[in-house]
Design a protein that fits this description.
Chain lengths: ~230, ~160
Amino acid sequence: MAGCQDFEIAVEKRLHGALGEPEQAPLEEHLARCERCRSYQDAARGAEAGMRSEASEAAAAMDWERIERGIRGGVPASLRNGAGAVLAGFWVAAAAWLSAPPELRPERMIRVLPTAAIVVVLVALVARYSGRRLVALVDRGEMLGTYRQVVAENLQWAKRMQWAIAGLLAFFLYRALTGQSATYDPLVYFGGLSLPLAGLWVFLRHVTVPRAEREARDLGLLEGAAR
Amino acid sequence: MAARLPSLSAAEEAEILAGARAGRAARGEAFERILRATREPVLAVCLHLTARRGDAEDAATEVFHALHRGLAGVTGESSLTTWVYRIALRASFRARARARRLDGEPAPLACLPAGPRAVLALFAIDGIRSGEVADILGIPEDAVWSRLHAARKMLAEVQPG
């Protein structure tokens, strides 16, 4: 051992029961004459004691029984995901049905059914992945490195989605302004398609992207303070 | 009630995993065993990483929901408790990002970036060994001491006085 940094690391090792017997005496000798390392040791002990006491208080106040009941008694995720997927498919089919002139509705419905089925499958797959993403990737390599990569990808995906939805909204607006949607019921056209998309855009813009940016800042992917 | 690292032996972990893959009743029992063994230290990690009790409770709840859903799918590449703590780290980072801002003056630990916070939070679990921290973070065991030392220095810098 040479400098104070090595002794400070030795202090940490001793604090966590990992310092070998031969290293104990040199550390004691160094601590006896080094004020800086002694205060490092006191600060480390104090910080850990404080953290442990805070954690004990939180654990004592936690209602574990309620949490356990909530986990066991909740609606199964597979059922929730399935219901959400069917609703999304129904929304696509209903929007297509209502937005077509009455005489074209049966033909439109036949054309849109495969699309609605694809939407059901896609939503079910995305919901299934979302429910499992917390446990996905946990076994792969350096934890924070993997997590940084996932957060960076999520942020990029959310920003791309935001732009894609803005493009779709602009397309709908263009069709409405140029009269190409004249045969459609405006209430269905705007209420069924544009407003839900606008709601999704607002959610991405004000919730998803800022949250992903805060996470990225915390992990050191973006400049600026985490808060 | 100290946040002490559960001392589940490899045989006990294997028994829990076998239970998780068996019938409904055995799965429920396996979940209960791992919940009781890990709940205090998981909450402690969540608390130190999120810096807010409400967020820590949300994150810990999310961990156990994930555990309930995913226990049967654990491959056993890492130990069961390592897997639980890795989920706890991710759930805590997400819970912290969901909270727009901290109320009042944030604790010095809350001002550190995610990496140093994670090292300090894990080492604050009573009885944890450097090898276990290394497994959870997925880094070599030698590196955990220098990371802990660097995190402690950063904490001292943001500490008032």
